[in-house]
Amino acid sequence: MPPRKRAAAAAGQGELLSVSSTKEIQDILWKAADKLRGSMDAAQYKEFVLGLVFLKYVSDAFAERREELAADPELAEIPEHRRAAFLEEKDEYTEKNVFWVPPTARWDHISENAASAEGGVGKLLDAAMDEVMKANKALTGVLPKIFNRDNVDQNRLKELVDLISDARFTGHGDRPAQDVLGETYEYFLERFARAEGKRAGEFYTPASVVRLIVEVLEPYEGRVYDPACGSGGMFVQSGKFVERRKGKDHTHDLAIYGQEANERTWRLAKMNLAIHGMDPKGVGDRWADTFADDKLPDLKADFVMANPPFNMSDWARKSDDRRWRYGAPPQSNANYAWLQHIVSKLGDRGSAGVVLSNGSLTSRQSGEDEIRAAMVEADLVACMVALPANLFRTTSIPACLWFITKDKSPQGVKVLSDRRSQVLFIDARSMGAMVDRTERILTEQDLEKISDTYHAWRGTESAKVKGLSYEDVPGFSYSATLEEIEAHDYVLTPGWYVGEAEVSEDPEAESVEARVERLTNELFAYFDDSANQEKIIREIFKGGVDAG
Asked: Where are the beta strands (DSSP E) in 113-263?
């Protein structure tokens, strides 16, 4: 067996060639890549593998555009040397939003020279990354040049290059290779998040949570902003939403704006956007802290989506910051700093979806209750969703969703339901399905039920098309007035408003499994409520002691 074939077989090529589904290819590539982990730290390994996938993506996209140009009948009528020169015209690629890939950075060159390259395949890859960045300003400083380091096993790296070279990213119906590679990038991000556990929170939000935010906000067009954008998942899912509803040609109806404080995570976001055909310039030309150095001070967005760090105490607080319109948030917790920063970025009819810890619903510490009351009275809060446990591998802290809007009126020709001075509460704690012993996801049915409930309440076009109308559902949803919220001392825990679910009197109408699941979720919900009420009481007593 020739050396290249032997190496590829060792990495799993024989198995790869026998499958065709994207999922099977991803699993095999992951197993092969995992052999390279060695002495790398998790963050470096993540950059390493995703950098390779990205380089394969830009090369495939370049090759696809080159084939389009070469197929032009008019090109056949010109001399060979002029035809070859035309195929190397940089503008013919960049004007179609395809990155220019210099000859020695193209994947076929890397694959053909992996075995014979002087200094090893790692040196070849580092040089390719450097050339791609120099040729494309949007990628300056983004791609990893870490393949020729001492802790990288060059033999196994070559095996992985061979395997990626032979992976069938084409031949998946009418889906282009770029779509398959984009899904592979997302798959690897998810696998890294699972492997890193709590450390993954800075770059990954569970896909079902992102989907829920997107399905509620419905960002068909306009400016989309994420102040803690991680690896860019909110933007990618927004693009996919537009593609599902309006077609791929309309994904450019979205203009994305983001900021990320962590350098490595910022690099992942730039690559993730590019691999999904979105503008990587949207997340800026450098990483930066949103509180200390707001890179978009004048932005007014149509949609804001965010999963900021929960209960962050180490943040750049300025007591006189103009963003603190509803009260200065405490140094001990940035939850209300994030909320007010997001409100400051909304246009006149902008809306936002924000993931925060459940503590944000009830906290009375250091004036947070006063900020919450001021935001409610300003009629900014549209909907509160209590999420089920175990959605986040990165934290055990219970979480919720805040949906904020600047305008609850009918909005003229949109003819929405007038929801001024009202807030929708949804208790989704009993929803979701466990995918293993520790992780839960929201199912398609869950996403549809929650988003349909919101759209029915708001009277959106989506609800009208489906013929939906809103009614309170005991134990699940309730539309509360500001007076009712004031009577609850501005606590925003959905369980306090939705009441108890109606249970069938016929025990045989519910399977044993469903009943156990329901009762277990209800028990956990009671635990959550009990913990929240205990926290409130402790803060009240602490305040009394401090005052005394």
From this structure: 222-226, 254-258
